Fold:
Amino acid sequence: MKLLNGYRMRLVVVGIVAAIAIGGGSAKADFTFGMPVNLGPTVNSFDYEFDPCISTDGLMLFFNSYRPGGYGESDLWVATRKTTDEPWSEALNIGPIVNSSAREEAPSISADGLSLYFSSDRPGGSGGEDLWVATRENMDDNWGEPVNLGTIVNSSASEHAPSISSDDLSLLFAERYQGPFRPGGSGGGDMWVTRRPNSGADWGTPTNLGPIVNSSSVDEAPSISANGLALFFMSGRTGVYGRNDIWISKRETVDAPWAEPVNLGPTVNSSANEINPDIATDGCTLYFSSDRPAGLGGHDIWQVTIIPIVDFNGDGIVDSADMCIIVDNWGTDNSLCDIGPMPWGDGIVDVQDLIVLAEHLFEEPGLVAYWELDETEGDIAYDSIGVYDGILSGVPTWQPTGGMIDGALQFDGTDDYVSTPFILNPAEGPFSVTAWIKGGAPGQAVLSQPGGANWLCVDSLEGCLMTELKATGRGAAALLSQAVITDGYWHRIGLVWDGSHRILYVDDVAVAEDAKTNLEGSENGLYLGCGMAMEPGSFFSGLIDDVRIYNRAVIP
Structure:
């Protein structure tokens, strides 16, 4: 099927939306993440910032901080902005009515912006920390005197980190990890929920979220999505990348049990301490606190975008083929196509998913670096979608009309190469790389990572495509295909690691595959046109064109 232009495609989407009857079902969608971004000095300080909470309209960010200028050990602060496209203003202390000489932490703002729940160890509580709420009549009013949620919710333990649901009828919270803990839990701090029949009723007796979500480790800081189908939280359970990681549990309906939690992975989590998640109302941004490098203080507030995977057939681009897939699965229980209105879906493949698909038409999800190599002069190979421009060394020559797709770069096989900044560590998750090549000789490399391995190279005997990017541990070996790529014709070569298999491609056909659940890693940049150690004989002799790197598995 030929690609439709954007305007025509959107007309087709509108027509399909109007024509298809909406069915029922439940589905679970995949999503990925952008790169975490520090919120900067208007929000963060040289001290400690924790527990971000974003308002429904995305214009107020509440958090607690240990910075100077407060009324107690830790105070609640708020940063504002006029639109979601503008930067945050300088954060302001909420003031002495809400804050006290004690410790106020973990704010959670109601959907209408009129109730602010938080935890505090101020006098008048039942335990080490209690849950409190401050209210106001309208958005322009000051907050009123905080009210303790009472002995049905609070206990002699330490209730901490509330998260109010969007319908105002469920309040999730945790036990502070230092204890003491409520009876009936699973380990070193559990998550609980209290419910009420309407917003004017009293809160009911809390119930434990159960052993699927809670573990024998610390499980804390719940944040429930606006549709009630996703629960983000921090945990130190087995499988973390650092001290604590952020996890997600999903459920098919608001009455269904929570599923087994899944770690958000190494893009969000690091070897540091990722805690206190808060999911935005639209489900597209996750806020959290971390002491990872590049922060301003001991702990900073960060945000990361959540991106639905709309490339259903995995060919690297969102196009008419993906639209056909979503139409074919309309109203079914499909694990692939439920991508709206939130990235994890709403339990049905319907018009919401088509709307999201239309918003991403002709994008290439997960494409993190793309060198078209169409320049005509100069010593820079520009990354057309990011910041990973390459520097030419030696005397590679631009061939403006000699490429497979427009221009290409000619390498002499002696000392020509291109070096790039660090892009990704292959040990940290699935990735893909593709390139067009013409020429080459046995033993030469197309793409390598110094300190790591030759990602795409030619074997030393027959001129076949291979990768020397190996698994960790003893007995690790290169993956060799039987596909000759040095015959003087253009070939599109590729390497894909999906987290469980290495796959080599030549001209969009898989030519070698093996099972590998891990790969060796490197934090260095890349070389185009030579081996990782620049050894003689590894420099490529021929044309290289259209090099792409994805932070996910795609099918060339």
